[in-house]
Amino acid sequence: MAETLIWLIAMPMAGAVATLLLPRQSTPIACVTAVAASLVAGTLLYAVSEQGSLSYEIGGWSAGLGIALRADGLSALLLMMTALVMLASSVYAGTYFTKAAARARFWPLWLLLWTSLNALLLSGDLFNLYVTLELLGLSAVALASFGGKFAAVQAALRYLLLGLLGSMMFLAGVSLIYAGYGTLDLATLTLAVEPEPVAWTALALMSAGLLLKTALFPLHFWLPPAHASASAPVSAVLSALVVKVAFYLLVRLWMDVFADLVTPAAAGLLGVMGAAAILWGSWQALRTERLKLLAAWSTVAQLGYLFLFFPVLLALPPGPARDTAFGGLVILALTHGLAKAGLFLAIGIIQQRSGHDRINELNGTAQRLPATTFAIALAGVALIGLPPSGAFLGKWQLLAGSFASGQWLWILVTIAGSLLAAAYIFRVLGHAFGNQSYPRHSVTIAREEWPALILTTLAVAGLGLAGAPVWNLLESGA
Amino acid sequence: MIEVMASLLTVSGVGFYLAGSIGLLRLPDLYSRLHALTKADNLGLGLLIAGLALHTQDLLIALKLVLIWLAVLAASAASAHLIAQHARRRETQS
Amino acid sequence: MLTAHWLYGISGCLLLALGLRTALLHDMLLQRLIGINVMGAGVFLVLITVAYRGPGIAPDPVLHALVLTGIVVAVSATALALALARRLTAEQDDG
Amino acid sequence: MTAMLVLDILLVLSLLSLATAALATNDARRSVILFMAFGLVLALAWGRLLAPDVALAEAAIGAGLSGALLLTAVRDQAHRALRSSRKPVHERGRANLRVTLEWTVTLLCIALAGLLAWALAQAFDRAPKDTLAQAVSANLAISGVSNPVTAVLLNFRAYDTLLELAVLLTAALGIFALGPARPGHRAAGPVFDGLARWLVPALILTAGYLLWVGAHAPGGAFQAGATLAAAAVVLRLAGRRSVGLPTGHTLHVAMVAGVSMFLAVGLGLLVLGRPFLGYPPAWAGGLILLIETAAMLAIAATLVLAFFGGRPTPAPGVAEKTS
């Protein structure tokens, strides 16, 4: 079973090589790779739920000398979300890029991005994490600039420079860790680390780098242009997955490896930045005139909720109460990933059909593209956090945790953020459902519209109604 | 005896380097600076390498050192030529 | 702690800060990129200094391997950034 | 001991002053040339700190190829890329804000350097933790090579190197996706041509030597690949258009050679019932050389592509533009 870990990395990488060597068959190869990699992710999820966390020592060298891959409940769930989002976006990308030559150049980068996402979620070694972060950053930048439009290239260049800054900060932290503890293996480090200057300076450096990559307010400024000017399948993956895996790494470091170091003040700082992100991101989403920018600003806001969990989790006593709240964090992250990817895909369809994504000119969209409009509405349900979406469960846990620990500020921010989200979603839907004076027959394009619809349905119904397995999995894989 | 020879060669090589560097800083125009730099440095490196080769007393290493000298000679001659040519072209153009 | 550790370790930290400052403040792309590269050089200098154990003692090969990897990654990123920049100026001149 | 101290201080001072000078100037070309000089002094520092493998890579990649890339970017005026988006500051209030920002960032950077140095000093003050270095030397005999750095790069932490080759491939693909290569250089005069005529074969020979020697002495695929790429850069500068680099499909094969050979070996071993990239000790030396040869080709192809700045165009009949 442990071999599934290496297959999750080797498979998309081999797919990237194959699509590059056989450009004429690249689309079928990419689809087969996507399905196969998703099946492996499903197998891993099942294996973790049955056997608990898994690990794999590459080359047979013991962790420390060699590099170990590890998967627990958290990483297995995120790997599954990655697989679902990538699979759906792959199907969509096959129709989005109409020229065969463009597709042939797209797939290798796409599969390399998938490789880096999986590699990051599985890596158990600090320096290896640095390399995966760079692979992730470079493939994300190459994809964000794909197509070569001026705005996209400009945003991608800024994205690259800031990403490089972030990686360098991370690497500086890693070198300090090696100087102090003589190891790079996360499991060994967890046991060795002590609350002392070396450890907390290293943690601060690594966190600063990762916060830049997760675009937490006030380090968010690069995200909206980069996410809004990329092509639709790429935006979906950037917003749903790329920032989220950097967040995963932060959670891994703060809650797991360096858990002894984290003080309420530090967690509170993250919470304040998260609260600012929620308010500022939602406000900007409400004011913007373009649908893609709205989705991008909404990502800034939604990441803020995830950071509100830090002070809440730290205030709860370790044990069942904290674990329940932690499950809320995970389910919120998963819901946002699925819903935001679906939203970007749906926006891509609208943009391609009507040639623009200006919110004020969306009238008649509901008549012309009913399935896509429905997908946007479903994504909206998840972004606002209405029942029965998974986000409702997540926010509920956030509110319950804040309530239990008496942190009233987070409750106010969550409510304000949800109201703002409702406002910006209804603004879009209001225009989309607005009637157009002249009749247009409605179209349904199955291969284009299904991916968005399935992702948003999963976010609303799948995770919302069947949330319990998430908690079970986090427990069994701990 | 050989040690003394090696030291003498090395020191005189360094002396040529110093002269070349002073020339680079003090001479008035590009051509004379280039002249000072390449000539003095090539000779300086030659003496330095001769000194080091004597010092190691290993034929293989000495051979490698001489190879380095030849490579640097060729590269510096070619690059000095390129720089001078470029400067000359610019002068005639303007 | 060896004198070399002091000297080179502190220089590594200074290079990191120097590069970071330029990368954040300079308004020309090329200098920002060089700033990031100087920052990387600072981190590499810290790593190689940590690997150093003193004259005549074999240094830690793991860190040397890490720095080799880091140098190649840095040059890849620099190359991609420059290609993006070239594309931008080409379009600016056209339009 | 004092002589060494003088050398150390000289090295450190020239490193810091070169970096400061490279970053302080507003002249892009000057900045790049100073940065190249910085890279060369850095290579000396690596040599001083007993890291010859790193010194070789730094001289070839860090100073040499990065410098070549940056210089051609200056030629193409690429440094202007982000500038136009910033408007010159005229208002007094904005200018004051800018000064405040600069001071804040500067102070924060100084604080960061101080914090880092302090933490580093604390780490040095403890007994050095040599456990990993000891594990490397304990397992060196079964790693297939006797150069410990190569053993770490291609055996113990081979997975890092696989991902690193994937990073290189990604960069190459990203550059590829942006469009065709920039126009070549005009033909050089007879002197440079004469230099290229014997320098290129010598560089290719050196690359082969570095690849082979990496098993037991400083050297290896990365240094060799960079040297090979340097040969191509020399040819390109001499005005040769395609510099022997294949175009189209064959170029793709060269670019992915490293990753695919790595994957083939890793997955092949996995199918045979061994761990991924777990070489049997008897075969380790041969397999490592095989992977390194493929990696060298991929590195050279990628670095040359980066220097080209795009897809090489297979149209030798067309007269080349000169800039």
Description:
The complex is a heterotetramer of chains A (478), B (94), C (95) and D (323). Chain A is mainly α and 478 residues long. Chain A has 19 helices and two strands. A two-stranded antiparallel ribbon of chain A has the order 1-2. In chain A, helix 13 crosses helix 16 and helix 16 (390-405) packs parallel to helix 18. Chain B has one domain (2-93). Chain B has helices at 2-26, 30-56, 59-93. Chain C has a single domain (3-94), classed as Helix Hairpins (Orthogonal Bundle). The radius of gyration of chain C is 17 Å and the shape is elongated. The relative contact order of chain C is 0.13. Chains C and D meet through helix 1, helix 2 and helix 3 of C and helix 1, helix 2, helix 3, helix 4 and helix 5 of D.
**Beta strand % of chain A:** under 5%
The quaternary organization reads as: heterotetramer
Number of helices of chain C: 3
Distance between the termini of chain C: 59 Å
What is the CATH T-level topology of chain C? Helix Hairpins
Described by the principal axes of the CA atoms, the overall outline of chain C is elongated
Tally of individual domains of chain C = 1
Q: What's the pLDDT, averaged over the residues of chain A? A: 93
Give the uncertain stretches of chain C in residue-range form.
Answer: none
| Residues in helices of chain A, as a percent range | over 70%
Shape call of chain A:
globular
Quick recap of the structure?
Chain B has 94 residues and is mainly alpha-helical.
Please give the structural blueprint.
The complex is a heterotetramer of chains A (478), B (94), C (95) and D (323).
Chain A: H1 3-21, H2 26-51, E1 54-57, E2 68-71, H3 73-96, H4 100-122, H5 126-144, H6 150-181, H7 186-192, H8 197-214, H9 223-229, H10 232-257, H11 264-287, H12 291-315, H13 320-354, H14 365-368, H15 370-384, H16 390-405, H17 408-433, H18 446-465, H19 468-476
Antiparallel strand pairs in A: 1-2
Helix pairs in contact in A: 1-2, 1-4, 2-3, 2-4, 2-19, 3-4, 3-10, 3-13, 3-18, 4-5, 4-10, 5-6, 5-10, 6-8, 6-9, 8-10, 9-10, 9-12, 10-13, 11-12, 11-17, 12-13, 12-16, 12-17, 13-15, 13-16, 13-18, 13-19, 15-17, 15-18, 16-17, 16-18
Chain B: H1 2-26, H2 30-56, H3 59-93
Helix pairs in contact in B: 1-2, 2-3
Chain C: H1 3-25, H2 29-51, H3 61-94
Helix pairs in contact in C: 1-2, 2-3
